Each structure stands twice: as C-alpha cells, then as structure tokens.
Input
Amino acid sequence: MLFKIILIASIFLFAFQLLAQQQTIRIATLEYPPFIYSDGNQVKGPIVEKVKDVFSRLGVAVIIYIFPITRGLLMVNDGDVDAYFSLKRTPERERDLLFTNEPLIRQSFVFFVKKESKIEWDGNIETIKDYKIGVVSNTSYGNIFDGYLENSIIVNTDTAQSFELNFKKLIAGRIDLVINSYDVGKYLLEKLNAENDVIALFPPVEIINSYLAFTRTKDHTELARQYDYILANEND
Output
C-alpha cells in the first residue's frame, strides 16, 4: 500500500513538473532603449511589459534574457530559447522562425546626420547613396533599405555592433549618416548628451512593424495563435 501511495505521488509530482515546464518559456531580446533595456539583472521597458502581460494572460511564465543581436538570433534559430522579440519580418527570417501576426511596435526609421551636415534627404535614395551610412550587424531596417543593400544601390556602409556605437561614430565624424528608429535614436542621443549635435532627416525611410517570433525547433503553433488572439484584442 505504501509503495502504491509513493508511486501515485511520484506520478503526480512528475506530471506537475512537466506542466510547470510547459508553462514556462525562455525568450531572448536585445538592448533597445527606451523600449527594452537592462536594469541590474532585470529586463525592463514597455515592450517587455507588453510581452509579459500577453503570456501571463495565457498562463505562461516567461524568462527574458538580453543578448547581442547576433547571439540572440542564433539561440532562437537553434532552439536554445523559445522566442525572440522584437524582429522585423524578412524572407530569410520567416524561413527560419515562426512569426506572430500581431506587431509589438510600429516605428519610423530615419536617417540621422550631424547638425552642421549639408546632406539633404527628400526620400530619393540617389541623394545620399554615396555617403558612408552606419548600420548595425544582423539588423533589418525594413524592406526598402534592406533592398538598397541587397541590390547594391547602397554599398558604402560601416557596420557597428550596437546602436549606441553607431551614433558615437557619427558624432566623431567617422560616418556621414546613421539609419535608426527615430525614438531609439533620440533616446541614445540624449544619453550621449548629443541631442543638439545630431538631427533626424525626414521623410522616414520606412515605417515598420516589429514582432515576436518563435523558434521552429519546437512546435509553438498553438501558442503563437493564442498569443496573436490576446494581442489582437489589445490592439483593437
């Protein structure tokens, strides 16, 4: 009888542990202030809270880690984490990852230049294509700019490992322009005390949605569907 009780208890404990595992997912993201940022050992920001809230409504606990873009993307591709946010859709990424349908954020991507710069931008790529443009490795800037790169319309680029480093290069005069989210760019310029030294050029290159995407190494199809349902009702 005692053996039976122990066996039943063991089965229930195993089932509880399995359920707990199923209800916790690991998500990677990037340092992307003011939307996503690290504060000590905590990951904070409005997009982080949005993601946590959606999964909380689904009864799913999330553990969120900040990694450099290249490492985070590799981890979600390999299945070392369950998901990654926030990502712009590209054909290559959609082959590798299961994208959700509801956007987490919509951003204007613009060129930034030093205030004294004579560079003019009216939306015609011919006016700026010969200048040196700062970009960040493994970052998509939307279909329009990515297309300029893929089709070699823009070839004079300088690659940095972070958005902040990109702006430091611009301030130092090592590059002529930076392409970046307007909101993130303004935040970083304030952080660098350079908000009076650098300006944004309009019109935007593109206004782009960014998403959460799941690894394809596990079947998260149903979770992605439920996630979209919750977020769609919030976005309405």
Summary: Residues 2-22 form the longest helix (21 residues). Residues 2-21 have pLDDT under 50 and may be disordered. The chain is about 40% helix and 30% strand. The two ends are 57 Å apart (CA to CA).
